Amino acid sequence: MTSETSTEVVVEGRAPTPPDGAPAAAPSAGALLVVLVGTFITVLDFFIANVAVPAIKADLGASAAQAQMFVVGYGVAFTAGLITGGRLGDLFGRRRMFTLGMVLFMLASAACSLAPTATVLVVARIAQGAAAALMVPQVLGIIGTVYTGAARDRAFNAYGLVIGIAGVFGQFIGGALITVDIAGLSWRTIFLINVPLCLVSLAFVGRTIPESRGEGGTRLDLVGALLVTASLGIIVFALLEGQESGWPLWVWEALAGAAVLLAVTVWHLRRRAAADRGPLIEPALFKGRVFSVGLAATVVYFLAMGSFFFVLALYLQLGRGLSPLASGSVFLALGAGYFGASMVSARKAASVTARRVAVGPLTLAIGYAAVALTADRLDTTGHVLWLLPALLVAGLGMGLTTGPLTNLVLGAAAPEHAASASGLLNTAQEGGAAVGVAIAGAVFFPALADAGGSAGAYPHAFAVTLVPLIALGLLASALVLAAPGRTARR
């Protein structure tokens, strides 16, 4: 990655630079494996809870509001804390913050698995999301520090692959764990499984990941952190709760208040940047067209991607009567397409262009259209296996987009702004997925009610909901095309 700005990144514990003419040592794959485990479990826990909500409600006697908070609480805490988490890693060490985040995530996961009441589970889920927000932003910074050139391209594509696998296979993994019912633990195993994964990863963090931090600031912008966290938290929570509550007045008041907070945030960040006092988010990032447009495309793409998982699960389980495991098995078609396309993207990472990246969301939109037409044609009598070819195409679109789009956005950011860029990208991904669920629900549930609300109404409501998701896929493709230039990292 090139930049006109002179920059330096402090790296501790790395081998010395080889003499001129000597080959550089290949970076260890261990660092990538460790940070990708952290990425996998945090994204997985965003999606896996959906399939477990019925079992949790029955076991803990949770109310409808508490059941929603199992998912919403994690998502809001995760999304709102990502930018601050990235900045903490830049200031105090990415390995240190990654380790702390993983320890806290492990403890919160154990608390979730042992929760005696619904209230305790909600609190533990919020703590889980906050820990994930501390851990995940360090991943991209660590990858950018440890790997260079083609190895970095492959690492970023592996990152995108893991995000997709966690999202696509989350339903299947959750359904399988609940169905197997290990030691009679039922839904508790979906949280308990994080504990051994974290323990193994923590054992290798110190051996594989060098410490690194960014130059350009010695103190955390506490005011900026509070403003950004409050703004994002209010927006995501209001959108998610608004759909569930029928869009009462307080939701619109909250969104208006968040808009005011965002305006104050922008003013604060510009003022702090002008004084060279290390703002939480560097405004100079948005001067680059590729970064700004790529970040917007990321938001739009994840709006379409995350919401699709949500409505597909509703359609399969409530509309077609499939069990959690059977429903999760249908998602394997998405996973097959995603995995295959991601392998192709990884091989072409060094020569990818914006035009090539734009093919991904366009393919996604085509796949969604095929799914909508097939589901509407099948109604409630046709076999769901007829959906698999269309789901395969949608999975191809996801695999052609996630990794390369990540490379596009981060490849356009100057190295000294790595923490801000990583935090913004993670926020765009997780926030887009969370808000996308609210958008899909605002279309799906009214369409379901208008069609009578019975099981027979689900195919029509599902097909109608895919229409705006198709539009989002087309918009993401157009936005990527508006970001010209090569996305390859050199």
UniProtKB/TrEMBL annotation:
Major facilitator superfamily (MFS) profile domain: residues covered: 31-488
Residues forming coiled coils: none
Record membrane topology: Multi-pass membrane protein
Residue intervals passing through the bilayer: 31-53, 65-85, 97-124, 130-149, 156-178, 190-210, 222-240, 246-269, 290-316, 322-345, 357-375, 387-410, 431-449, 461-483
Keywords on record: Antibiotic resistance, Membrane, Transmembrane, Transmembrane helix
Family annotation (Gene3D superfamilies): MFS general substrate transporter like domains, Multidrug resistance protein D
GO CC terms in record: plasma membrane
Residue ranges, annotated region (Disordered): 1-22
GO biological process terms on file: response to antibiotic
Localization, UniProt: Cell membrane
GO MF assignments: transmembrane transporter activity
Listed name of the protein: EmrB/QacA subfamily drug resistance transporter
Organism for this UniProt entry: Streptomyces luteogriseus
Taxonomy of the source species: Bacteria, Bacillati, Actinomycetota, Actinomycetes, Kitasatosporales
